[in-house]
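Problem: given the chain below (151 residues), write out its structure.
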Amino acid sequence: MNTLNISIDTKDPEINQKREQTRIAKQKAIDWVAKMQATHHKHPMNARQLVIGWGEGEAQQLGIFELEPSFLSYGAVDIKWFQGFPMRQGVGTKLMKELQRQAREDGIRFTLHAWDKGVIGPSKLVQFYKKLGFKPIAPGSRNMHWDPSWD
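Solution.
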């Protein structure tokens, strides 16, 4: 199979440098998602979702999440979905703090969207994410981002 290679180099070194920085940032996000997939258990019913567990038996808590490179911000990772079980007992907070800890170690930024399809409404989700250091990308937006340098 033939591939088409198109050079996008310009004679302007500043533009070329920015393009290279963007390429490196995109690759960093791709590599971090792959690292997370390699180091966490996969959900038995959805291989795109990853699982972190705490405790045993009746006291067991599960955090389930899905990650992919962000389309909103090059070099960031998008938290597509996450859920803590049992609900309303701090497991979601524990999960997000763990994801932030791991991202901080590697200098990874997060994006996410407070969606309106779950048990918890988007306005409560936005409040939840703000408590964990996320900021709206634009005023009133449910698209949010987090940067480890903000801590």
